[in-house]
Amino acid sequence: MPESSHVDLCLIGSGSANSIPDDRFDDWSIALVEGGTFGGTCLNVGCIPTKMYVHPADLARTPEHAGPLGVDLTLDRVRWADVRDRVFGRIDPISAAGERYRAESRNIRLFRQQARFVGDARLRLDDGTEITADRFVIAAGSRVRIASADGLADTPYETSDTVMRLPELPRSMIIVGGGYVAAEFAHVFSAYGTEVTLVARGKALLRQEDAEISSRFTEAMGRRVDLRLQHTLRATRRAERGVEVDVDGPDGPATLTADVLLLATGRIPNGDRLDLDRTGVTLDDDGYVVVDEHQQTGHPGIFALGDVSSHHQLKHVANHEARVVQHNLLHPDAMIASDHRYVPHAVFSSPQVASVGLTEEQAFEQGIGYVVGQTAYASTAYGWALGETGEHVVKLLADPATGLLLGAHLIGPDASSLIQPLIQAMSFGQAAPDVARGQYWIHPAMAEVVENALLALPLDGRSAE
Amino acid sequence: MPESSHVDLCLIGSGSANSIPDDRFDDWSIALVEGGTFGGTCLNVGCIPTKMYVHPADLARTPEHAGPLGVDLTLDRVRWADVRDRVFGRIDPISAAGERYRAESRNIRLFRQQARFVGDARLRLDDGTEITADRFVIAAGSRVRIASADGLADTPYETSDTVMRLPELPRSMIIVGGGYVAAEFAHVFSAYGTEVTLVARGKALLRQEDAEISSRFTEAMGRRVDLRLQHTLRATRRAERGVEVDVDGPDGPATLTADVLLLATGRIPNGDRLDLDRTGVTLDDDGYVVVDEHQQTGHPGIFALGDVSSHHQLKHVANHEARVVQHNLLHPDAMIASDHRYVPHAVFSSPQVASVGLTEEQAFEQGIGYVVGQTAYASTAYGWALGETGEHVVKLLADPATGLLLGAHLIGPDASSLIQPLIQAMSFGQAAPDVARGQYWIHPAMAEVVENALLALPLDGRSAE
What we know:
2 copies of one chain form a homodimer. The first copy, chain A, is an alpha/beta fold. Chain A is 28% helix and 25% strand. Chain A has 3 domains: 4-143 and 268-330, FAD/NAD(P)-binding domain (3-Layer(bba) Sandwich), CATH 3.50.50.60; 152-265, 3-Layer(bba) Sandwich (FAD/NAD(P)-binding domain); 351-455, FAD/NAD-linked reductase, C-terminal dimerisation domain (Enolase-like, domain 1). In chain A, α2 (47-60) runs antiparallel to α4 (80-103). Chain A is globular. Chains A, B: It holds the Pfam family Pyr_redox_dim. Chains A, B: Belongs to the class-I pyridine nucleotide-disulfide oxidoreductase family. Chains A, B: InterPro entries: FAD/NAD-bd_sf, FAD/NAD-binding_dom, FAD/NAD-linked_Rdtase_dimer_sf, Pyr_nuc-diS_OxRdtase, Pyr_nucl-diS_OxRdtase_dimer, Pyr_OxRdtase_I_AS.
């Protein structure tokens, strides 16, 4: 007869939720349910390993950047197996150690199974074990969305879950997708020496970005890969070597061949696999768990966080939400709200992209008044050092009445770090002229491009100095 | 008989002061006096060209960084002449165009001569021309300090003014100095392939930095060059090929030989060359023009800014002071003060160093209570991508009572950009816990090392979340 147990707290998912139980929870009985790899998407197949592939890709491209600056470098080879083994030799033990730590916890019981709700605050594991809990945290994450195409079931393909563990570097690869996952892997594999064909439905890559950024990124990537925009996937099949893919594009149908097919067509939240309706938790039209500002679902005591409930699908958002849920579990009478006002993101491709706040298109559509300030890296002293030619920019939107930033969009080197003072300004309500002139910007650091973009905003009321 | 003229404003120096006359000065008669290269130190021999040499040096060192990450790169060669010609092919025309622009200005007269004061608000140029003015701006900059050594007058040597224009890359070089100029050129030349011997008086390099940073930097540089600490220069002479240099060190005297001798032993302000006592302007014990908070000297209407009056000797400080002087010239009845509270600086060597505020030693000496938070790049996700091994850190000092930052000291990749949110926090009085948790930090961007250092500060009163 299946076991049944009651705990104070049941955590579903070992990613961000795993950071919740600290010493303040030592007298709580806790169940931690994880059916997949321990540690979640970010650690195992997401942010962290991808960046460990991206940096070597940046290095592999150094020769083409260095040549015009007078430095002759030759890329001899990228040792795929060594890259891969460095990444997973580092990550897999972290996952294993995290699992071991929890398995040995006195007050935490780890269940390595999938689970579904079978009643009100009642969860059933695959082996039949039932868990009831005073509180649940649903942090079951998201999974790769698989594109549909005739014959796909019989075609070998990779996703971001698997492609980083390939036994060897493919000579050629078809990547399907136009978002950040496709953009990062197109950079990685093309830099490593794989011939990449990138198939995207849209007229541009990274279409969620400000159109200026999306356009500049698309142009840059188009110089590096065989870029097929406005192409849809029709059919796939196994070929003698690798795969064949039928696509339809503006110029009619075409058949592409490659060693490897990588599907990078987005991620979907895992809430649909939990039978959440049995416990009174609802999903929105896109399949995300609906939560209030305290990260609480419609069912009191059931919280959700991270990819399963956040359209952002970003680890830094999940971490923030985990801290909010942690607080709210400990202080049910003094809950705090999560802050989703200024959520930045970055695309670690080449060029790098980082963004926070409204795009120009969003501001326009929402009828929000704005002014634009834009500066090219090339116009700064450090840009001269880098040999910048004008492709990389910082674009800012501000409210002309208050000078407060509405959005910041960067494409170029170190975008993901350079954006931080702008996130800080938005989060703390600092007006653009004050941010520009109320602090020193080291000359000639790369950050001057941000200072100059702030000064390029056509705002009145610049501070006296 | 020498000409004599009276103007509304006389600017001495064409560096930062040259940014003062904008359209608001169109009805002022202005004299601009410059005896050296037009455009000042930063543009011609300082910040800008040096960084244009540093970036290729960073690129030249990519192979040793990339190898352990699985990317095999070979440095074939650094084309010295191409590096040099790219730099000065870019900079020299800017200097020339700047000069032409001013020479053609309707209301500005450019005097290409050295000048000295000969009386109250009365300047005499080398050709005897005398200029009197209602207002002066002394922005005559600084010059290279030449170390003293027997025989130096008869020995060929380079300084930062000349070394970037060498006809060819030297096979070997002795650099004398332990500050930022020596540190940057030691990086540049050793990366380009020159055998560098670095002779420094102190027990460490970059001794003005926090001792932790200085020590880490010294260790890193010691692996790249023949580092002679606690060595003093005794004598120099021309050798059959290049130079011979006698030094005295802890183990006694030694004679070093190299193709080129580079003296990088600091800079001194040019106020001593202006006979400022004739016009009632005083110098401090270190030779800097004494100014008040409005950048005004003891003589009303005579302002000074930049290296000639600022111990910082930093271009971003000079720029700030130029804006202050500009305002104060235009609004003599509503002068503003310059802000020297949180002046950051960076050393663009390898590793890069950036700093703002108090070092731990300064805080200790001044009896200021502080706590320390320190985080290694290696402990962050991006640090894993970079293959960091623990040498590079962010070290923060904060006031335990208020949580306000007292100092920030970074050594590692992109230090000069990563420091910006910390400068911002200090300049706007934002407490460390708020800066850490009151905004999102993109995961896994390099900036997370800053977030983590903020969180590593042992401060109570962390915000609720």
